[in-house]
């Protein structure tokens, strides 16, 4: 079970401290938004590079940008350990996955809540991570879409059927209230933004999630 706090919910003016506060987590989830693929702009290469420079966490970069293949090398050079692309963001998702692997990084694929899961199947055997979005991407702090549990369950079955050890990550509205159910549905990796950084500091937030998963 891996926890991947999303730094989108952190205090950017104190990014170094925030990263230290999640040092006991497994990964840092880095949400890149371009104002095109999603209706919001977050941050890009320089912030990833700054985070990389002060943290040894696995940098899990979620690219919510149009035609991500244009920037894969740049994000790899800026310190990404894993790169996740949306099936809706490119006509060439298979090529993008290959490119990520050629860059020596972990390749992830994801899709929006309204996209049929079938879109994953052609690349399922070629990825290190499948991300099931449990909110519509673009903003932190949204409510978990309950139907996501079924989608997680289906993808868990597909991965097991092909003997894949890929991470099954879930992103959006994950909290201490639903984390157990998400894991029971088959997730191996939980992204959490507001549930970690939201109230009384990241360490307390992480602790609440760990408690909930016991
Ligand atoms: C949403 C992002 C998420 C977001 C999660 O577009 O992909 O990673 O930061 O935030 P919470 O956990 O607050 O829903
Ligand atoms: Zn994300």
TrEMBL record:
Protein name (Swiss-Prot/TrEMBL): Ribulose-phosphate 3-epimerase
Species lineage: Bacteria, Thermotogati, Deinococcota, Deinococci, Deinococcales
Organism expressing this protein natively: Deinococcus soli
Function noted in UniProt: Catalyzes the reversible epimerization of D-ribulose 5-phosphate to D-xylulose 5-phosphate.
InterPro entries in the cross-refs: Aldolase_TIM (IPR013785), Ribul_P_3_epim (IPR026019), Ribul_P_3_epim-like (IPR000056), RibuloseP-bd_barrel (IPR011060)
Positions contributing to a divalent metal cation binding: 29, 31, 62, 171
Gene that encodes the chain: rpe
EC number per UniProt: 5.1.3.1
Active-site residue numbers: 31 (proton acceptor), 171 (proton donor)
Cofactor: a divalent metal cation; Mn(2+); Co(2+); Fe(2+)
One Pfam family, short name: Ribul_P_3_epim
Biological process, per Gene Ontology: pentose catabolic process; pentose-phosphate shunt
Cited SUPFAM superfamilies: Ribulose-phoshate binding barrel (SSF51366)
Family: Belongs to the ribulose-phosphate 3-epimerase family.
Top-rank taxon, per record: Bacteria
Pathway recorded for this protein: Carbohydrate degradation
A GO term for molecular function: D-ribulose-phosphate 3-epimerase activity
UniProt GO cellular component terms: cytoplasm
The reaction(s) this protein catalyses: D-ribulose 5-phosphate = D-xylulose 5-phosphate
Residues holding substrate: 6, 62, 138-141, 171-173, 193-194
Cofactor binding note: Binds 1 divalent metal cation per subunit.
Keyword set, alphabetical order: Carbohydrate metabolism, Cobalt, Isomerase, Manganese, Metal-binding, Zinc
């Amino acid at each position: 079970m891996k926890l991947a706090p999303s730094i989108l919910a952190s205090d950017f003016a104190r990014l170094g401290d925030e990263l230290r506060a999640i040092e006991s987590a497994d990964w840092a989830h880095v949400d890149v938004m371009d104002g095109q693929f999603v209706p919001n702009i977050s941050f890009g290469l320089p912030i990833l590079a700054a985070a990389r420079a002060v943290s040894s966490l696995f940098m899990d970069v979620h690219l919510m940008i149009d035609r991500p293949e244009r920037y894969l090398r740049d994000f790899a050079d800026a310190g990404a350990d894993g790169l996740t692309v949306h099936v809706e963001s490119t006509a060439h998702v298979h090529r993008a996955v290959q490119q990520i692997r050629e860059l020596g990084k972990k390749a992830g694929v994801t899709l929006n809540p309204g996209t049929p899961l079938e879109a994953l199947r052609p690349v399922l055997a070629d990825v290190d991570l499948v991300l099931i979005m449990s909110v519509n991407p673009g903003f932190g702090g949204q409510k978990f879409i309950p139907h996501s549990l079924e989608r997680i369950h289906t993808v868990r079955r597909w991965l097991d059927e092909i003997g894949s050890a890929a991470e099954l990550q879930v992103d959006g509205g994950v909290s201490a209230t639903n984390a157990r159910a998400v894991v029971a549905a088959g997730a191996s990796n939980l992204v959490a933004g507001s549930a970690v950084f939201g109230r009384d500091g990241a360490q307390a937030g992480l602790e609440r999630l760990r408690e909930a998963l016991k």
